[in-house]
Amino acid sequence: MELIQQAYDLLMTAAVVILAVLIILSIIRSILGPGISDRIIAVNMIGTMIIMITAVFSVWLKENYLADVCLIYAMISFLGVVVLCKVYTGVYLQRKHMKADLGAIEDNLSRQNREGLDEKEVQP
Amino acid sequence: MIGEWIRFVLAALCMALGLVFMISAVFGVKRFHHALNRMHAAALGDTLGILFVILSLIIMKGFSMDSLKLSMVIVFFWVASPVSGHMISRLEAMTDERLGEISVLEKNNAIRVQMDDQASMIREVSDKKRKKKKGGKNR
């Protein structure tokens, strides 16, 4: 019984240490990432790994309320990603004076196409 | 006694598999160069990584109310991760001005840039315009 307890402790320690190293690497990626969406992706992945660590601790320390913390953290992480995406989409579109709606992608492409058509009309 | 060890081996296998998925997700995010490709790598950790890690915890704990809560975390992630991925990809599609480029990773870590037809047309036109403007200034 002692031995299997030691084996479980070793497994949990290895998992938490590996996840902590991966979190540090993701923090480096979120600092380096050139665009805002790279940073949002890295922060989302950090949230996933923190949820994993919390779940491992909830089993390791036999603290059952940490499972609830996992659920709430997942919800708040999802909410954070959605709000960050909305905010940065709005900031970009306001800076470019574009249409801030669902048709913004088509608007962007049509602007580019219009520039192309003007050039073609000028050429002949 | 032997049943306990079988359970431990199953849990360790699932945990190792989940950690391998997380490691490959992090290194994929490091290795790809565009945000849409990076999102593909990050979704691996959001779905399979958290599935296997929490499955190993459920195997360790046995079936109880707390393992039900942990499995609710998996269900919530599988519902919420595609939605957040869609939001991030829409942000990228709106804000990236070089969307049509396809970058191909080669073996020696070099990037070869290909473009589809529409994007190459736009790029050619804008290059001509730039040259014309430069010429106009020189005249």
How does this model look, in words?
Chain A is an all-alpha fold and 124 residues long. Chain A has one domain (2-98). Helix content of chain A is 86%, strand content 0%. Chain A contains four helices and no strands. Chain A has helices at residues 2-32, 36-60, 65-96, 104-122. Chain A starts with a helix and ends with a helix. Chain B is mainly α and 139 residues long. Chain B folds into two domains: 1-96; 98-139. Chain B is built from four helices and two strands. In chain B, helix 1 (2-31) packs antiparallel against helix 2 (35-61). Chain B is elongated and about 60 Å long. The termini of chain B are far apart. Chains A and B meet through helix 1, helix 2, helix 3 and helix 4 of A and helix 1, helix 2, helix 3 and helix 4 of B.
Enumerate the spans of chain A where pLDDT stays under 50 for 5 or more consecutive residues.
Answer: 119-124
Number of helices of chain B: 4
Biggest sheet descriptor of chain B: 2 strands, antiparallel
* Mean of pLDDT of chain B: 80
The biggest sheet of chain A amounts to:
none
Q: Quote the distance from N terminus to C terminus of chain B.
A: 90 Å
Percent helix of chain B, as a range, is over 70%
Oligomer: heterodimer
Task: Kindly report the greatest chain-chain contact and the residue count on each side.
Answer: A-B, 54 and 53 residues
What is the overall number of helices of chain A? Answer: 4
Helix content of chain A: over 70%
